[in-house]
Amino acid sequence: MTTTNSHNRLRKVCIGVSLSIALAASSIGMFDNSNTAFAATASTTKSVARQTTADQIIATGLRLQGVPYEFGAEAGRSSSFDCSSFTQYIFAQNNITLPRSSTQQSTAGTFVARSQLQPGDLVFFYSPIHHVAVYIGDGKILHTFGEGGVTVTDLNAGWWDEHYTTARHVLSVSAN
To answer: Residues 156, 146: contact at Cβ < 8 Å?
Structure first.
């Protein structure tokens, strides 16, 4: 993946987040009750903080596209990754601590239904679990496997769709 394609993808994610924030902010003005508006503002502020952290994590991961996959890659190293060292690394670069293995990561945070996935959520595959990816929005996941190394894949197609197991919100828990 070229740097230009990575920048274009990141730009699209940022534009989407900006539009979401603008729509959320405009909906606040529709409330007449000041208490309700305050609650919506507090909720929106928390959501914006989560989106900012998610965007930073995703941007960190996108910069690593093409870095080789290596089963059992050493944690903390960025010259190669396995799936869980990748998620652990990009979250750590943004001050979020995750356990080392995909099985351990699958118990972090709180359960989230597939229909409620948000950028930055961890998505797990197989049974028993032994693969993890980061949901980046628009039905796409960021992860590493096989010859391609770190890559973006369509969650809702083929093997990934068929072997989806569960997902976890980890940012909302960490942000509290």
So the answer is: no
| 143 is an active site residue | yes
Q: Which of 7, 14, 83, 169 is catalytic?
A: 83
Q: Is 83 a catalytic residue?
A: yes
Q: Which of 13-17, 50-54, 96-100, 131-135 has the lowest mean pLDDT?
A: 13-17
pTM over 0.90: no
CATH, range 1-176 = 3.90.1720.10
Q: Which of 7, 14, 131, 163 is catalytic?
A: 131
The most confident of 23-27, 60-64, 168-172, by mean pLDDT: 60-64
Residue spans of the domains in the chain: they are 1-176
Given the residues 7, 130, 143, 163, the one annotated as active site:
143
Does residue 51 contact residue 20 with C-beta atoms inside 8 Å?
A: yes
Instruction: Give bridge partners of residue 141 from the DSSP assignment.
Output: 135, 153
Roughly what angle, to the nearest 10 degrees, separates helices 3-28 and 34-62?
Answer: 180
Phi, psi of 145 (to 5 degrees): -170, 155
Measured distance CA(145)–CA(7) in Å, rounded? 22
State whether the Cα torsion 76-81-82-83 is positive or negative. positive
Residue 7: active-site member: no
